[in-house]
Amino acid sequence: MSLIGSATAVAAQRIQFPQIDAPAAPALKPAALPGAAGAPGTASADFGAVFEKMVSAVDAKQADAAATTRAVLMGDNAQLHQSVIAMQEASVAFQLMVEVRNKVVEGYQELMRMPV
Hints:
Elements: H1 3-13, H2 42-74, H3 80-113
């Protein structure tokens, strides 16, 4: 399955990810951009916080999947289908995070290629 197919499957299944507190729309005014008067560095700090929350949410999903799988292997009261679902959720969340990172890096590289 391609990554686009994975993203479509995630949208179709409506997997619930932990809520990430994104800045409200008024925070996206031009005055909040880095280098703008009044709020230097605000937008980059907000993006860093959002990305950090996304990484910790993916880490939590992977830890939950590992714990559920361990419980199944040890013969605890966990069920196999719950383990498989948790592993797939962690996998899709990780793929999404990698794609977001790739797009951010691609955007940065494109900006660096622009003549000044």
